[in-house]
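Researcher: Please generate the 3D structure of the following complex. Treat every line as part of one assembly.
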Amino acid sequence: MTKRNDITALDEVAGNGLLSRRLLLRGGVAMAGAASTLVATQGASAEPLKEPEWSRYQGTTVEPMGRRSKNEKDTTRILTNPKGEPRTQHARTPHHLLNGQITPNHLHFTILHNGIPDIDPEQHKLVIHGMVKQPIVLSMDRLMRYPMVTRQTFIECGGNSAALFSNEPVQANLQSLHGLVSNAEWTGVPLSAVLDEVGIDPKAKWMLVEGADTAAITRSVPLKKALDDAILVLYQNGERLMAEQGYPVRLLLPGWEGNMNIKYVRRIKIVDQPALSYYESRNYSPLLPDAKAYRFFFVNEVKSFITHPSFGMKLNEPGYYEISGIAYSGAGRIERVQVTADGGKTWADAAVQGPTMHKAFTRFTIPWRWDGQPAVLSSRAVDDGGNVQPLRDEFVRERGVTQKPVTNPFGFPNQHYNSLTSWGINAKGEISHVYV
Amino acid sequence: MSMSKVSLAVLAALSLSSVAFADDKNGLGHKVGLGQPITEADIKPWDITILPDGTNLPPGSGTAAVGAKLFTEKGCIACHGEGGTGGSNGAVITDIPLAGRGIEATKTIKNFWSNSTTVFDFIRRAMPWNAPRTLTDNEVYALTAFILEGNKLIPPGTVMDAKSLPQVKMPNKDGFIIKFPDRI
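Model: Done. Output below.
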């Protein structure tokens, strides 16, 4: 009983040192600890303490916009087109440097096909027309007066994790591989509230949504989704939308392919057929190995990856570590996440951070005792609809891999990868990207 | 993925209650009614989307001969190369096959696009990249004809207009599987 908290004495719940997630439950440790005089430390005695330089003088002056520590200056997005050349621009979220579940606004991923438009909210208009009794136009002023809802949800580009379609594991960090997904709290007007008042023709099945950006990005969206949980988003994590996220108003389709969440939305046309516009008929129709392609791959299916530790980090010594990662499903709520440290031979349940939310990031954690030997970490999520993140061999059998190794981690050999990500740890504690 | 779905469906059925979805739905018991009425005629300048059956194609017409000149004059060659056969932003006229190149095959208008109307819609909406929505409808028809003819999708000299464009046969029309039919 007294030995229960000593990391070296705990029984593993799965191979290579995975420990019980129950150790993370609040109360469990403290209760046992109270009854115990046992101490746990690691290594030789520490240096004597001194007063540090920075606590002796007045600090710097507070500014209107908060600033993070200069020591965190490298916590930034990776850009694919920093000079704004005439092509698409991508900015990827550094999940390996973040924690929790919310992506800060300035680190949220974004993709722009023709730059960020500079929209005056006083002149921006949203028009709804087509197969309706009465077409309407809404100023932003008027739209802001509708009842609003707030929810967390992730947005993921259909091309996120595309490098994992490579036949050989691409040696790139988490941000490069999985940086085209982020999670925020969005506030806005339920689209159903607005659609309700135009009188939709019962024969209509789709809506065409279009942005006021230079590329006039458009996608066809089933009305079923529009009337279900779609939101005209005005706020992102409490503040007005970032310019690059669609200011002043963007469509949010919780759990659905990023490109469909039209930014700068200015027009919604109710119709009876999809337009098969550029992005739905080309980029976001993923090819299958037999040269057929999926079309209308709306949902970002259940997925997870370990953020800590991950590629490029180093474990400096054996001992206790917490494995931590992100799980999400465009079809529902995360119900269970399992972690392996021995490349999938044995799995243990991770602790899932509650309250879990539909179509939102869920942080999972599990304690781990690394013994200094090679290990392979990966995670596998299950959602409340019973959808299980597919193992890599299952996934590859259906969806295929490239014929040649992918050399550019930012390229898009295919779309909608939701299989596992595995990190191989060698005896030196170095971490590489591996397939199992 | 559906493969492992069955094994966990039972487990899910036990733990899932219909109440659990309540926080994931939007609903409003009343109509707010703040939208200002507007006529379709007044919306027309923004109403640019073309449907696959040709709905909303504007009057006008064009041929490849005219389109070939426009392709140079309007600067398309700067990004798509001389004659559209490849530049910094890819070829719009090319014969690369889809099959046999794996999942990373290059998707082209000829080997992949299912609808000719998408060519007109996309050029009118987004090209030239540096000055979208500056082309006249006749110019868009001509550029569309140039690209379709260069890809041997229409016989030489075919006039593209609201009637002929939707009838162009695209080779990969039947190459698609709807991933989530139940969500439509």
